[in-house]
Amino acid sequence: METDRLKYFCLIVDTGSLTKAAEVLGVSHSGLSKAMSVLQDELGFKILIPKGRGLELTEKGRELYENGRKILEMVNGLKQNKAFSSNSARIALPESLALATAESITTEIKEGITVDDLDSGEIEARILDRRIDFGFTFVPFPDKNLDHFKIASIHLASFANVNAFRGKDSEMIPYVIPSSELKENPLSLKIRDGWNSTLTRQTPFRANSLSIALKMVQAGECAIYAPKFLVNQLNARLHKDYQLAELDLSSARKIKERSQRDVFFVKRASEDESKIMKRVVKVIRQICKD
C-alpha cells in the first residue's frame, strides 16, 4: 500500500469532503476517487461509503484513519533531514512573505528552522499530514483540525522603477503578473498578486516567481502590484537608481487599486502555541508593518 493513498484518505476525512481534499491537493475529483478505489481494493474492505451527496466512514475506515495518522507521522519523521535537530521547526509561507521574512526568521530562530515557500491550501495540507509544523497564509482553507488566527494586515499598491512611467496614462502601463492563478479557494480569489479583478491593466509580462518579477520591474520596463512591506524592504538594499516607487496615479485610481490582505497564522488545533511559534509570529507582525 502506498503511503500517498493513505495520506489522501486521511485528508478526505480531515476536510470532510472528497471535493475539498481534491482542491487542497490540486488533483482532479475523479483521480482522487480512483485512488480511493485502489486503496479499498488493496485493503480488501470498504473504508468509505456514499451517504447523500457525500461520503461516510465505515468502522474499518475509522480504524484505518486512527492508525493511518500514526503511520504517516512515523514515515514523515523518518524522512526528515538528519542535518537538522529533532527540535527544528518546519514552517511554510506564501512567496512574498517568505522573501521578506526569511532573513529575520533565521536571525531570530538561531537553533535552526526549515522555511518552505508554498501556496495557500498546500500549506494547510502539509500541516495536517505533519510535514510542516505551522505556517502563514493570505487565503485560509478552513479545516476542523486547524486553527487560523489573523495576526496582521498588509497593503498592496502598484510600483515601478523610480524613473519609469512618469506622467503615463495608468491604463497604458505594462505590468508583470504571476504566470499562474491561485487554486480554487474559500475566498474565490484567482489573481495571485491580489489585483482587483474589476480593474483593467496591460499585462504583457509574466513571471513564475516573485524574485524574477521584481528583477523585471527594476529594469524599468514594467510595473508590479505588490505588498508595500516587501517593496520597502527591497528598496533599503537597492541603489537609488533601481529603487521602486509607487506609481503616480490619480487619486481615484489609487483608491480603486489599493487593497488590503490579512495574514493568518495556521497551526494544528490539537497543539498549543509553542515558544517558537510565538517568536515567528512576532517577526511576521513586525515585517508586515508598512
Description:
The relative contact order is 0.14. This protein has 3 domains: 3-79, Arc Repressor Mutant, subunit A, CATH 1.10.10.10; 89-152 and 262-287, Periplasmic binding protein-like II (D-Maltodextrin-Binding Protein, domain 2, 3-Layer(aba) Sandwich), CATH 3.40.190.10; 153-261, 3-Layer(aba) Sandwich (D-Maltodextrin-Binding Protein, domain 2), CATH 3.40.190. It is built from 10 helices and 11 strands. The protein has 290 residues and is an alpha/beta fold. α5 links the parallel β3 and β4. It is elongated. The strands form 3 sheets. Strands 3, 4, 5, 6, 9, 10 and 11 form a 7-stranded mixed sheet that branches. A two-stranded antiparallel ribbon has the order 1-2. The model is unreliable at 81-86 (pLDDT under 50). The chain starts with a helix and ends with a helix.
Summed up, what is this model?
This protein is an alpha/beta fold and 290 residues long. The chain has 10 helices and 11 strands.
Based on the structure given, which CATH architecture of the largest domain is correct?
Answer: 3-Layer(aba) Sandwich
Count of domains: 3
CATH superfamily of the largest domain: Periplasmic binding protein-like II
Low-confidence stretches: 81-86
Question: Mind describing the biggest β-sheet?
Answer: 7 strands, mixed
Might you state the CATH topology name of the largest domain? D-Maltodextrin-Binding Protein, domain 2
Distance between termini? 50 Å
Q: Estimate the global geometry from the Cα principal axes.
A: elongated
Q: State the total count of DSSP E strands.
A: 11
Structural class by sheet pairing and helices: alpha/beta
Strand content: 15-25%
| Average pLDDT | 87
- CATH class label of the largest domain: Alpha Beta
Number of helical stretches of at least 4 residues: 10
Order of helices and strands: HHHEEHEHEHEEEEHEHEHEH
Supply Rg.
Answer: 22 Å
Q: Which range best describes the helical content: under 10%, 10-25%, 25-40%, 40-55%, 55-70% or over 70%? A: 25-40%
